[in-house]
Amino acid sequence: MRILVDTNILLRRAQPASAHHQMTLDALTALVRVKVDLCLVPQVIYEFWVAATRPIEVNGLGLDVATAVCRRTAA
Fold first, then answer.
1. Confidence grade of residue 68 (pLDDT, cut at 50, 70, 90)
2. Are 36 and 2 in contact (CB under 8 A)?
3. What's residue 72's pLDDT?
4. Contact, 68 vs 21, CB < 8 A?
5. Phi then psi dihedrals of residue 6, to 5 deg
6. Domain segments of the chain: what residues?
7. Would you state the pLDDT for residue 74?
8. pLDDT tens per residue across span 25-52
9. How far apart are CA 59 and CA 55, in angstroms?
10. CA distance 36 to 31
11. What sign results for the dihedral spanned by CA atoms 27, 15, 45, 74?
């Protein structure tokens, strides 16, 4: 089975201080354990980039480009 990973999952995964961070990790780990194919599409990557690099004052994560790249690849 394939499951599309939503932008919000990536954002919570990239944000250790989020109240939903651990839940996101647990859900992704459980899906990988049962051999679900986790899929990304360009739109989700684009949305992650926009939200991750948007300033915190306007509801973003406020990450600089280098950190956003690292968080994206870790997600």
1. confident
2. yes
3. 57
4. no
5. -75, 155
6. 2-74
7. 57
8. 999 999 999 999 999 999 999 999 999 9
9. 7
10. 5
11. negative
Name the residue type at position 46: Y
Please give the C-alpha separations between residue 52 and each of 1, 5, 6, 24, 27, in angstroms, as whole numbers.
29, 16, 14, 17, 21
Structure-token pair, residue 23 = 């839940």
Residue type, 9: I
DSSP state of 3: E
Lookup result for tokens 């684009």: 46
Tell me which residue has tokens 């406020």: 62
SS3 string, 21-67, reads HHHHHHHHHHHHHCCCEEECCHHHHHHHHHHHHCCHHHCCCCCCHHH
pTM (two decimals): 0.81
